[in-house]
Each structure stands twice: as structure tokens, then as C-alpha cells.
């Protein structure tokens, strides 16, 4: 039997290896040959990854804390993109931008004051009258329903309906709603002033934004800003038009049918019309119930005509008013409304559609390749035009400050957008006679 010799580190011949005792460890059974030894896995987080996680958590906490401020900023952007086309139209008529901004905001303020002064007293009076007449209206409706066998249980339910002690809750509820209305008014005024300041400092703000983005992306950024202005402006202006038309139609219809408190009901219908799909149901219900208190014939007329108007609005008015600004499938519209309403309530439902349209626009403008799509010939042509526009921009903005470069990028994007909207047909060969 040969013994192994450990080499001497000092250069000697070495000394025999002494057998080492095996380390004792608990075992549940006899070991098997070829069984891999247990290894301990160590999870190490790189400092950069840890910093990103901390930064993401801090950003999320900051967003939650500043959520009302972000809402004010979003509303200010909506106001800005809604009023900016009017200011640009005045600039094209050789009116200075400062004067145009003053004219637009003074006009909005004047119209708002006139509308509130002329409608609020009447709405409050009619709403108070509705609350005072509610027991009489409920009793009359129950008597009418009691004449029919199918609706008799509903009549009994109306007669036995009892509210909570009004003396204990009305004051607190009114105070809570008044505080809420005051907060909404304060946030609305803050959004208006923020939109005014952003419109006045447009060039500097745009220059600062373009200074943060690499110049190779300036053309694409300018196109995104133009498309965003089109989406938001068209949506808000269209929403105002459709709501006013709904309110005017409801007021004329209820007045012609002899229904009392037509002004309050028409204002409610115009506000409810802001919510697509759901707003129609909310607008029809109170109007029909109020007309039913007048006569069953009036309720039938109001129901049929309001449903017909909603169909006309969805088929004719909305496509004409909104145009091609929002190109969203019905499933995306429905999902956006549910998600916006669940996250932010009524405000979320109002801004859900322009946000969804903006996301779709960003996917298209940023040329994001989706997994199920393949590049088409039109996509290749768009990329070629993007390259030409970027080359022209680089040539025209060499050695130019970011603020002036932003103006040049917007000019190039506007010219290209006009060419896309109004393509010039190719000239064919001249045909002689």
C-alpha cells in the first residue's frame, strides 16, 4: 500500500499525508453514489438595481401624495389644448399672442359668469321645488302604478318607502357637499390659472422640454405634441357641444310637454351626457319620472323622443363633432370607461377616452412593434419620411438653441401633417387633343 506524500512548500521532499477524519453530519439515510451535494444560493442585489427600486418606491409615494396636484395639472393641460387653437387662430389674424390669450380667457370668464348668473338661481329654486314635491309626486306615482297588476308590488314599495331621520343627516350632508363643491371650485380655478401661465410661457416651457430630449427625437416629440393637441382639443370641444345640445333638447322637450322644473332636469341631462353610454340612461330616467308625474302620455313622449335623440346623437352628431380625432374600438371604449371610473370616479370616466386615444397614438408614433404585427409597406414609407424630416431638422437647427429648435420642429411637423391630410395627387402625363 502506497502512501500519498504532500509536497513541501519550502522545496523539501515532503511529508506523508495524514488521513483526515470525516466531518460528522446528520443524515437521514445512507448516502448514494453520484448524489449532488447541497449548495447554498446567495441572492445579491446590485447597488444600481437597489437604487432603482428605491427610486421607483419614492416616485410612487410622491405620486400618491401629490395626486390632487397631478389632477390639477392634467385638467390644466386639457384647458390649454382646448383654448390654444383659438389663440393660434387669432395669431393668424395678425393679433399678438398676449392679446389673443387675454381675449380668449376674458371671453371664457365672461361666458361662465353669465351662464352661472342666469342659471344657478333658477336651478336651485327648481331643485328645492323637486325636493318639496317629492312626497306628493311619489304618492301620485304609486296610485298610478296600483291600477296595474304587474306594477302593484312596486306601488306598495313606494308607499312604504321611509327615509332616515332627515333632521339628523341633512345638515351634515349639506355641509359635506358644500365643502366638496368648494374644493372642486378651488381646484378648477387653480387649473385655469395654471393653463393661463402655461399658455403665456409656452415657448420657454417647450424649449425646456426639448432641451431634455435628444435632438434625434425632436421631430417625433413635436408630432406627438401636435397629435395630443388634436385629440384633447377635439374631445373637449366635442363634449361641450354635445352636452349643450342635449341640455337644450331636454329643456325644449320638457317645456313643450308641460313638465315642471325643466331647467334643473335639462342641466342634469347635459352634465350626465358627459359620460358615454351611461350618461344616456342617467339623463332619461329623471326626465321620464318627472313627466310621469304630469301624465302617462307625457312620460311616453319624453321617453320615445329622448331615446330617438340619443340614437341620433350617437349616429350623426358625435361622428361629425369628434371627426377622426378618436379612433377607438367599442371594446376599448367600454374598458377605458370602466377603468377610469374605478380609478378616479366621474373625472376618470371623463378623461378615460382621450387617455386611451393618446396611448394608441403613442404606440403608432413611436413605431412600437407589437408581437402579432408585421411591418407593412406603409410603415416603411413612414420610416423613410421620418428619416427625411429628421435630416432636414438637423440641417436647419445646427448651432441653434433648444427654444428655437423646438419652434422649427413644430413647423416641420405641421407641414408634414398638412401634407398627410391633404395629399397632392401625382401629376399624370399631358394628353393632347
Notes on the structure:
The protein is built from 14 helices and two strands, in the order ββαααααααααααααα. By secondary structure, the protein is an all-alpha fold. α8 runs antiparallel to α9 (262-272). The protein has a two-stranded antiparallel ribbon. The protein has a domain at 63-161 and 175-212. It is globular. Mean pLDDT is 75; it is low at 1-6 and 8-14.
Secondary structure blueprint with pairings:
Blueprint: E1 5-6, E2 15-16, H1 47-65, H2 67-92, H3 97-132, H4 134-146, H5 152-159, H6 166-200, H7 202-212, H8 218-256, H9 262-272, H10 278-294, H11 296-322, H12 330-365, H13 377-396, H14 402-421
Antiparallel strand pairs: 1-2
Task: Give the helix tally.
Answer: 14
SSE-based structural type: mainly alpha
Helix content: over 70%
| Helix-strand sequence | EEHHHHHHHHHHHHHH
Name the beta content range: under 5%
In what order do the strands lie side by side in the largest sheet? 1-2
Per DSSP E runs of 2 or more residues, the count of β-strands stands at 2
Give Rg in angstroms. Answer: 35 Å
